[in-house]
Structure formats: structure tokens, C-alpha cells
Amino acid sequence: MLHMNNKLTLEQEFRLAVNYKKNIVFVNNSNARRLLLATLKQMMIRDNIIKFFIQNRNLNN
What is the pTM of this model? Predict the structure, then answer.
């Protein structure tokens, strides 16, 4: 059984600390809403891609 690791990698932690946190100060409420919606859309698309591959994993064998 595979163990699911939900923690960020060291590289992801670094990017979060250095790149994103310094830029988030400049985001106003309207931009925050727009960015949140864009992020949610990307997450839904990612979920759909994962579901597609799971459903079709045995079709190529």
C-alpha cells in the first residue's frame, strides 16, 4: 500500500516563504478573489485529470 504524504517538500516550503509571501502583501481584495477563483479552477481541472487517469488506467494494458 502506498503512503500518501500531504506535507510540502523543502523546495515548496522555500518557494512559499520566499516568493509568495513577499508578493501577497500587494494583493487587494478584488485581486485576491480573482486569484482564489483561478486557483480553485486549476485544482478542479487537476482533480478531473487525476480521475480520468484513474478511470482509464487499465485500458492501455
Answer: 0.58
